[in-house]
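>> Question from a student workshop board

For tomorrow's exercise we were told to take the sequence and the ligand below, predict the bound structure, and bring the output to class. My setup keeps failing. Could a helper post the expected result so I can at least see what it should look like? The ligand is adenosine-5'-diphosphate.
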Amino acid sequence: MTVKSAAKRPAPPVSFLSSMWAVVWKDLAAELRSRELISAMLVFSLLVVLIFNFSLELNARERQEVTAGVLWVTFVFAGTLGLNRSMAIEKDGNCLDGLLLAPVDRAAIYFGKVIGNLIFMLLVILIVLPIYSILYNTNLFVPGLLVTILLGAIGYVVSGTLLAAMSVQTRTRDILLPILHLPVVLPVVISAVRASTYFLQGQPMDLIWGSLNLLIGYNVIFTAAAYMLFDYVVQE
Amino acid sequence: MISARNLVKRFGLKSVLRGLDFEVAEGEFVGLLGPNGAGKTTFLRILASLARPSLGRVEVAGFSLPEQAAQVRRRLGVLSHQPLLYPDLTGEENLTFFGRLYNVQNLPERIRNVLALVGLEGRGRDLVRTYSRGMQQRLAIGRAVIHDPDILLLDEPYTGLDQDASAMLDDVLRKVTAEGRTVVMTSHDLVRAQDLCSRFDVLTRGRILASASRQDVPPDGLQAFYRRSVSSLEPGRAGAHDG
Amino acid sequence: MNAKPKALMALDVASWALLAVSVYLVLVYAPMEAVMGNVQRVFYYHVAAGWVGMIGFLFAVFAGIMYLARGDRKWDVMGLAGVEVGLIFSLINIVTGSIWARPIWNTWWTWDPRLVTATIMELVYVAYLMLRQGIDDPDRRARFGAIYAIVGFLSVPLSFFSIRIWRTIHPVVIGSGDAGAQGGFDMTAGMQVAFFFCLFTFTVIAVDLLWHRVRLGFLADKVEQLKLKFSS
Ligand SMILES: Nc1ncnc2c1ncn2[C@@H]1O[C@H](COP(=O)(O)OP(=O)(O)O)[C@@H](O)[C@H]1O
Ligand SMILES: [Mg+2]
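>> Workshop helper replied:
Here is what the output should look like for this input. Compare the format with yours to find the bug.
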């Protein structure tokens, strides 16, 4: 049983993509075990939807107008839970240090976390949408709406993962994330609600393009910014 | 293998390391001793490329930090008081994950070997959350050596372990370090340090002001040497150097 | 460093003098606007405060970039100064806007893009202060502050455009007026004098305050250093 292998040269560096997928795989495997992140987001989402029902006295006609708003508020708050948890897992027991010790690009760690968080968020959305559909007898399977949700979720997770990586390293970590994130993610929420509402109302595309373009612009700008800034979030 | 020149680390305005010089040759096992808050962890974090020095030059395995951090990281294994493991993954999955990050070849075989080395053969499929503190620490050693590093940094590896677990850790550390690895270990446990280390450096007030090789310290004499080194820093005698 | 620099002293005096003159220009010299009446006079300070608030935040972003590039603590002190000055003047901007809106738009508050964006910007930088509050390690505080100052500032124009999708009723006084805007007007020569004078005055005041705040930060560092020296 030799532990020290014969070759003295260390293994060649791992590629960006494989290290990124390793992080994604790790998050998915852990979540598959514990299911604490998704179940928390899911139960929370359903509760929010229920509470909206009673607080807004949703009748059939008004429902049409506020559906997009209710959905996005639900996703935004549930998303905060998920982001907080996903980063707390790294910070508890200093696992983040373990990641940073590895010879991988920091950006690969960031994008790995982003993809993991995006998968969790989309899973929750995929479960909430049909339930909402059934509860309120609304057809939500509008392709445009689904595209909007995808774009919005990407924007939300891209900025949220960066800020969550910061907030977990503070004393006030749980309460700080929404305070940091909401003012920054507002353009996503506004545009996504707008576009979603228009899609549900079947409005013409030229009304909707503005919001979609804004979502795409946000995603591009914040992905680039996070790519450049994440190094500074984790370096000491 | 490791060299630090005039190393300064400040947190804000507070200087923790103040012009520290440190040199380790290949194959040495250096015990880094010093009172709480002396800056041992801070120093190891700099060597591990987790923190950046405020001033000074640091070279590890012939690469300078922080510029060539990636090169250093590939050759470095780190064990801290926390195990740096994911409790919701099994032992094997943890090693698989870190093995992938280090691009370890023949990973399944390597994992079997490492689990055997740290005495966790039967427990690889169990969740780390179900491990005892001692088992977690042993798996943490497995994580630290999964990529067969040339250099090991150990920060208080005995913290929180009971007698049995400590003895087992001793055993594992001996095996892991018997293969010509260079090791720097911080420890409060002078007895264990005396057993394991080939050299003792005392870090106080942000510098290494006393150093002794194993031959210079009589058996059971480490305690006395440590006392002398720390107390030689009383005002007026702060210049005392290299015991 | 310890004694107040002569230039700063001169700037203090200049700020007070300019402020006094601007009060005269705004309240007496500038002609009364025909439609809106005296309440329009708040406009001079309103725009000047908004302008200076923006300068403060921009300065913080610049300092943030410099901090990340150089790692020098002085940029952190400057960034914080920029944010604090920016917050004060933006608040003045929002409050004076509200005072103006009451008689003109018949409401204290409206969900106009500029108004909302100004408020969001204010919230972004309040969050910035809360972030700093939550961090004990001064290096990390500086690093995260710099990052958030930049990220927050990136989102501000995006917020503006996303709200713009609703129609605006905010007047655009300078440049082309929006057809739907209420409360727009053309500036006469007298108004222009008061307007540009206020911009200048507030800029000087902002520079003066920034300087004081930065100096205070440096002095605080010095006190901290002395404390450390004594305790060790
Ligand atoms: N991130 C940090 N911010 C501020 N001070 C720190 C930080 N990390 C360590 N310190 C300070 O540095 C000193 C040395 O700490 P450490 O390296 O952990 O000592 P040791 O490991 O020798 O007990 C302590 O006084 C500690 O308070
Ligand atoms: Mg320590």
